[in-house]
Each structure stands twice: as structure tokens, then as C-alpha cells.
Amino acid sequence: VKNNLKVLRAMRDWSQAELADHLDVSRQAINAIETGKYDPSLPLTFKIARLFEQNIEEIFDDEFGE
Amino acid sequence: MSEEQENLLDQTMTSLKHSLLIILYLAFAIFGIGFLAGYLSLHFDGSGKPLSILSFIIVFSGLLITSGSLYFTYHAYKNRAIIEGPLTGRESLNRKILWGSGLLGGIIGVVLVFSSNELGENPFTVFSNAPIHPALAIILAIVFTIVMPIIVYIWQTRASDEQEMHVLRTAAYYAFYLYIIGAPTWWILWRGGLVPEPNGIAIYFITLYTYGAIMLWKKYRG
């Protein structure tokens, strides 16, 4: 699943560490999600959506870049 | 690979380098403490006389190596902290648990080596099947069955995040398959007279190190 987490993070001028802190995960987890190596669980997906005040579909899409 | 990913990778590799330095310096410090303890106990048990000039120089050198190693350990620790920046709460706890577990494992290894009758005869004394004192066996069994599960529980519920749990599960699959394929293969080859008898503790460590290596690879390199 592709995502635009990196763009959203850049818009808030957050580092991976800062976003990790907001979501209570490690920097490695943020990096893995941003690069598509790891798909977050539903609870974390909702947490991300709430943090950026967007719908899940606006952040995650399995057709991004296709 | 984006610039940010490269930065994270560089940061991780530099952090790993400092971690290895910390382990190396700590090993020197432990060696120094062991050397001083051994030398002084031999000296006072043997003669009971005060230290000669030569002995004093040897002890002073040992103290210098030990304190220097401890200083460099602290220095490498501080450098690593500067490179990594502030850790999140989970990462900090995760790091403390890993270092604590490493220290506990080191202490168990040292205790096993010094309590074995094979001390000095076999460089792999810590992995031997030589008898140990029943009291020590009971203490270590309590550590393995009570202390370790508590550490693992805290690690998995409070220190690990979901991505790390995913990595741990993946590593566990690989290690498990290696075990269920490797152990009977060794056993069959032994029955055919082709290899030495299977060694349970060797199989345990091969499985454990495979698990650890895959876990680290998946966590930091994807």
C-alpha cells in the first residue's frame, strides 16, 4: 500500500523522529511505512489519519503511482 | 534511495559503529577488572607481602587500562546519543532492555566460565556440558524461567512497536524453519556416521543467532 505520509510530514516540517514521537512508534517504523516496506495496522492507520486530520483514503492508497 | 533514507541509514550505521565500540571498550574494562582481581588475589594468597615496585607498576597499568576503557565507553555512549538525537519513549526503553539483557547474558557467561571445571582447558567453556554446582544451576534456571519472561513481556508490550513486532515474527519464522529443517538433517547425517552427534545447545545458539541476525537486518535494512 502506497502512502503520502512523507509529504504530509514535510508539510508540518516534522522529522521522522518527531512523527514517531507523535505516534508512539520508532523512527524505523516511520521509515518502513514511508518506503512501503511495512503496512501499518488499522489502529495505527486511524491514529495517523487523526493526527493529520485527513481521511485514511487520502493518506493511503493501493493505487498510488500506478 | 532518498536523501532522508540515506541519512537514516548513515545514522544507523554510525550508531552501530559506536555500539560496537562501547562493547569493545566494555570488554577491555571487564578484562582489566578480571586481571586486577586475579593478579591481586594470586599475589596476596601466595606471599601476603606488600606489593613490589614491579607489582605496583603492573597493578597501576591494569588500573589505567580499566579506567581508560571505562572513560572511552562513556565517551562512545555520549557520542552515540548526540548522533541519534532524542529517542522516543519506546526506543529509549527498548535500548535499555537490550543493553540490560546483554549485560545479564554477559554476567551469566562469566559465571558459567568461572564455575566450570574446564576453565583454561577449553576456550568455549561457556558452551560446554561440564557439570556446574546444583545451587548455581537452580539460580540460573530461575533467571531463565522467571526473570527472562518478565523482561520479554515488558519488551514486547511496552518497548516494541508494531513494526518491530512484525520484524520479530518474520525473524521467528525463518529461525523456526531453520530449526525444523536443520535439526533432523543433522540427526540423520549423524546416524549415517557423517557428522558429529547433534548438540542441543549448539542448535539452540544457531537458531538464536539466525533469529537475531534476521531481526536486525529486517529492522534496519528492510
Description of the molecule:
The complex is a heterodimer of chains A (66) and B (222). Chain A is mainly alpha-helical and 66 residues long. Helices cover 56% and strands 6% of the residues of chain A. Chain A contains five helices and two strands, in the order E-H-H-H-H-H-E. Chain A has a two-stranded antiparallel ribbon with strand order 1-2. The longest helix of chain A has 10 residues, at 42-51. Chain A is globular. Chain B has 222 residues and is an all-alpha fold. Chain B contains six helices and no strands. Chain B has helices at 3-46, 53-84, 89-115, 134-159, 162-191, 200-221. The relative contact order of chain B is 0.07. The mean pLDDT of chain B is 82. The chains are: A mainly alpha (66), B mainly alpha (222). The interface between A and B is medium-sized, with 20 and 18 residues.
In short:
The complex is a heterodimer of chains A (66) and B (222). By secondary structure, chain A is mainly α. Chain A is built from five helices and two strands; from the N terminus they run βαααααβ.
List the helices and strands and how they pair.
The complex is a heterodimer of chains A (66) and B (222).
Chain A: E1 2-3, H1 5-11, H2 16-23, H3 27-34, H4 42-51, H5 56-59, E2 60-61
Antiparallel strand pairs in A: 1-2
Helix pairs in contact in A: 2-3
Chain B: H1 3-46, H2 53-84, H3 89-115, H4 134-159, H5 162-191, H6 200-221
Residue stretches of chain A low in confidence (pLDDT < 50, at least 5 long) are none
Going across the major beta sheet of chain A, what is the strand order? 1-2
Distance from first to last alpha carbon of chain B? 12 Å
User: Would you report the number of β strands of chain A?
Assistant: 2
Give the chain pair forming the largest contact, with residue counts: A-B, 20 and 18 residues
Describe the largest sheet of chain B. Answer: none
Query: How large is the radius of gyration of chain A?
Result: 11 Å
Roughly what is the average pLDDT of chain B, rounded to an integer? 82
Shape of chain B: globular
Strand content of chain A: 5-15%
SSE arrangement of chain A, N to C: EHHHHHE
**How far is the N terminus from the C terminus of chain A?**
11 Å
Helix content of chain B: over 70%
Q: How many strand units of chain B?
A: 0
User: How much is the average pLDDT of chain A?
Assistant: 89
Q: Give helix and strand order of chain B, one letter per element, not per position.
A: HHHHHH
